[in-house]
Request: fold
Amino acid sequence: MNEPNTAGSPSDPAIEAELLQRLRTQVVPALGCTEPAAVALAVSRACEVLEAVPEKVLVRLSGNVLKNGMGVGIPGTGLTGLPVAVALAVVAGDASRGLEVFSGVQPGDGERALAWLGQHPVEVALARDVPLLYIEATVAAGGHTARVVLMDSHTRVVLVERDGQIRYRAEDSGAASGDAGASGVQTTFHDTIRFSDSVALESVRFMLDGVALNEAISREGLARPYGLEVGRRLVDLATQGLVCRDAVREAMIMTAAASDARMGGSMLPVMSNSGSGNQGLTVTLPVIAVARCIAAEEEALIRALVQAHLAAIHVKKQLGPLSALCGCVVAAIGAACGIVRLLGGPGVEIGLLEQRMSAVVRDMVGNITGMVCDGAKAGCALKVATAAATAVQSAMLALQGLAVASTDGIIDDDIEVTLSNLAAIGREGMRETDSMVLSMMLAKSGRD
Reply:
């Protein structure tokens, strides 16, 4: 087993603790698309407070949550849409499981949910002037009501009410700005590089849980006809000799197949990143694909995944939980960094490693910035396939010394400025795009 390059260790134990905590809280299992799961979590929790099966449900959502829940498959039902997610939460949701709220769904629950939905009103409405991630579920039965509000993250309950009486109200988190976590510890991108190089292996061995989960759903996507079947069709093209199955293509196949299954309503969980299952798939599976191609040792894979996850979290914290920028852009940057660590070889000098990471970030930001999020749906598999291929290609080119020049576009000599520019485009620059996309989707929905 290769010893970590401790010369590059973070000097501050608080930084190490913060980065490890991010892995433990931001890299967690999720079942089904995250936004419908979060809506179901709020509804399920409200049903618990109501202590009855509701006679009607009102869900008010921020635009980004609504956008990401309109067209995605709901596990165990074979159907799409937020009303279906609400109904399944009513009959079979388990709020104690967080984003795995549907994990207890049994055969027949889908039919029960549809039967309930056919007899009870469910209203899904756009909430205006609320945070980017806002979910409010109100349920009613027998003259009583219960209301639960989630805000700022997919599992953060900020308000619980029954009959207008507050049962729970969260205190303002008061989180620091920038890339500080709940602890208030500020970190840099270079801290993630040094951490992944030096962290004790046993502290991060749980990265292998994500390997098992995400490879399993990838295999499921190849075995059964989910969604657009992007992964399966790529395999068919390879079988016909029209494309080769190199590292780039393997990353595309594995990641797309997993997204096919997840967007198509598979009951298999995934290991998410920053509250998104597709981001978790895009962070990990390209790294895993390359590791399989080169027969990488377990330690090398674990450290590469640590780097990939932390790089994506670092960018996502600046971008915010939801935006008009497709999350696979952020996730693919993380994957590219993980692949650079994987292919760079053990024991590489930390300064050279940082130089290569800076190069791959430049190459990724200079390439796929601007990919638009138009909601969670079967077509996401095409986007994650593109992102996965770009991650592998960019990592290989960066190791060959290719780096987009700082004179190009939004690229800067300072890696933090480059990433800040990317986040600003997604967070602020594409705000009007986000509104336009949602308007188009709502107009289309009204015609269906």
The chain has two domains: 31-169, 178-444. Confidence is low (pLDDT under 50) at residues 1-9, 173-178. Residues 291 and 297 are 8 Å apart (CA to CA). The first strand starts at residue 29 and ends at 31.
